[in-house]
UniProtKB/TrEMBL annotation:
This is Phosphoribosylamine--glycine ligase. GO terms for molecular function: ATP binding; metal ion binding; phosphoribosylamine-glycine ligase activity. It comes from Rikenella microfusus. NCBIfam families: purD. The gene is purD. SUPFAM superfamilies: Glutathione synthetase ATP-binding domain-like, PreATP-grasp domain, Rudiment single hybrid motif.
Amino acid sequence: MKLPQTVNILLLGGGGREHAFAWKIAQSPRLEKLYIAPGNAGTRACGMNVDLDPSNFPALKQFVLNNYINLVVVGPEQPLVDGVKDYFLNDPEIRHIPVVGPSQEAARLEGSKEYAKAFMARHGVPTAAYFTVTASNVEEGCEFLASKVKAPYVLKADGLAAGKGVLIIDDLAEAQAELRAMLDGKFGSASKKVVIEEFLSGIEVSVFVATDGNSYKILPEAKDYKRIGEGDTGLNTGGMGAVSPVPFATPEFMEKVRARIVEPTVRGIREEGLDYTGFIFIGLMNCGGDPMVIEYNVRMGDPETEVVLPRITSDMIDLLEGIAHKTLHEKTLEVTPRTAATVVCVSEGYPGSYPKGLPISGLPAGGNVMGNSIVFHAGTGLKDGLTVTAGGRVLAVTSLGDSIRAATDRSYETIAKIDYEGKYCRRDIGRDLL
């Protein structure tokens, strides 16, 4: 099966990842109309924003029928975990419209840490040792911390916690107390079940895979920066920047990733009959040259998407068609060897409480390109015709260069021209890799 030659696409989401997707899709000569639900102030330059909640499935159905949508692309994880793909497949009026993203069962690879770890165990994917704790075996969990793993202690909420459900603690007594707090609702229903993990020592890298459930293509890898402070200090965030390619992800290392992790993961998806037509985000730790899986996500990362997609030079709709219609093996993925670097600008107070509605000045007029950079909107809105802040992460500024330093310098030069009250960014993105 194929999509029509010109395609109407509905893209779900409204953050920096979705702006990057919208920007890339809009470059395709095959695009007829692109709708982004709900989008943000920046995505207006790529298509039409529509006031739709991605979790309101009946409203999505009505929209795709009314607007002759040929393909739905899901950006964030929540609609996937909630079963948006199953909703389409189970409705005879819209089951013919392909959804790029996994089924609800397959989305448990992100929606449940325990499910993912068990999947890895079944298919021989290298990962850290773990133990699952609920209110019924909390004492066993405390004993596991005391006798089976060494500090630092890793505690993960089993469910989705907006990227904030992971604690890494050096003190045993504190770890045991936090385990009880998590089970008592520290992260709401997400931590009714907690996975204790062995701590993996090394350096992280994110690997992205497009798959139609049978074949796959490995997209450019990336390294992101999670902590708010320079030198990787302070609280965890949704991501303060990213670079791609990653110098230590050599061809030899990436062959290990392919053979030991990507191949058995996709084979496991196929053998277990999971409906998976979408992207797999594999968070890895490079442990002395050997890759170990930290976690799966069932969609692209943010802000990693903002460095991965600008490095892809082949047609995005062609790639999405291959994923959706299980013809990915027929498609060609082309990637530039140049380096991409993204620096994220956040609101003052993030990742805690922060103000909203502050006017942003210096943005490119009528587009996304500003000098040598692409300005992706992560948390912006419109107020009285002005672009204003609407989230903790506000902008993701991406630049291409012949080196990490050249790319990051260009992003910092662009950021200097943009202003809003309380603007903050890390000044050391990529510097650890020089």
